[in-house]
Amino acid sequence: MAKKRYAMVIDLHRCVGCAACDIACKSENNVPVEFHWSNHITQTSGTFPNVKYRYIPTLCNHCDNAPCVQNCPTTAMYKNDEGLTLHNPDKCIGCRLCQLSCPYGVIWFNKDAPHRTYTDDEPPAIKGGTFQGQEVAQKSGAPIPYYNPARATTYAGVRKRGTVEKCTFCDHRLAVGEQPACVVACPADARIFGDLNDPASPPSRALARHKPKVLQREQGTRPHVFYIRDFEG
Predict the structure, then answer these.
(1) How far apart are CA 86 and CA 10, in angstroms?
(2) 13, burial (CB in 10 Å: exposed 0-12, middle 13-18, buried 19+)
(3) CB count, 10 Å around CB of 50?
(4) How many angstroms separate the CA atoms of 152 and 141, rounded?
(5) Do the beta carbons of residue 229 and residue 13 sit within 8 Å?
(6) 80's torsion region: left (phi>0), alpha (psi -120 to 50) or beta?
(7) Is the previous residue joined to 49 through a cis bond, with omega within 30 degrees of 0?
(8) Residue ranges of the domains in the chain?
(9) CB 174 within 8 Å of CB 103
């Protein structure tokens, strides 16, 4: 058995739908604006005034039985010893089979060079008074103004054109004993992260106390993102 088996539990009674997780993820992982490693599903049902609204945070499920890993022809998408589903951009050939195989829609493809806003922006609206995106990046001394160099310790800081990318559970933070950025940023403590091999870990205790659900259980992927206390019962 692996020494650790990381998983996340999301308490839907605590989640307030603020999207702090989404913003923290972009900042921590240098994610392009149009990509969403951390995302959410919104559902509205019923007829006014009897309307129900659901907000379900989503991310890579780091499945035990991951279709993206099984269908990758170059082993660019792989499982590590701690249960994380990770991606090696140096092996990626951009075939997108992983993206097509994922039932959760959480894998993104760099069709063009990422962060184009900061490389080929339009001229400034007022010369000397406003800045192009490229000028902002240059003045920040980084590829993009919000660039986080720590991301590059385990994965490309900015993923290249022709490759896919997705959530890694912030493996670079786990490597130094820190929690994923989305967990730290959640103001309501709705995200519970840790090692399922440890029965005393926060996610193990949360799963023992509540009846968990996963997205698309019928797919047989055995996700490592669990949901508890759904308002739908």
Answers:
(1) 21
(2) exposed
(3) 7
(4) 16
(5) yes
(6) beta
(7) yes
(8) 6-228
(9) no
> What's the rounded Cα separation, in Å, for the pair 63 and 84?
8
* Three-state secondary-structure class, residue 112: coil
SS3 call for 6? strand
CA distances from 60 to 53, 199, 225 (A): 23, 23, 8
Cα 140 off chain centre by:
25
Residue with tokens 């692996």, as numbered in its chain: 2
* Helix, strand or coil, per DSSP, at residue 114: coil
Phi, psi torsion values for 31, nearest 5 degrees: -80, 130
DSSP string, 40-91: EEEEEEEETTEEEEEEEEE-----TT-HHHHH-TTS-EEE-TTS-EEE-TTT
pTM check: above 0.85 = yes
- For residues 156-173, one letter each, b for 16 or more C-beta atoms within 10 angstroms of the residue's C-beta and e for the rest, the string is ebbbeebbbbbbbbbbbb
Look up residue 202 and give its DSSP letter: H
The Cα–Cα gap between 116 and 144 comes to 10
Burial class (CB in 10 A: 0-12, 13-18, 19+), 121: middle
133 vs 149 pLDDT, higher one: 149
pLDDT digits (tens, 9 = 90+) for 46-75: 888 888 888 999 999 999 999 999 999 999
Architecture of domain 6-228: 2-Layer Sandwich (3.30)
Question: Are β-strands 191-195 and 164-165 bridged in parallel, bridged antiparallel, or unpaired?
Answer: unpaired
195 beta partners: 6
Residue type, 179: Q
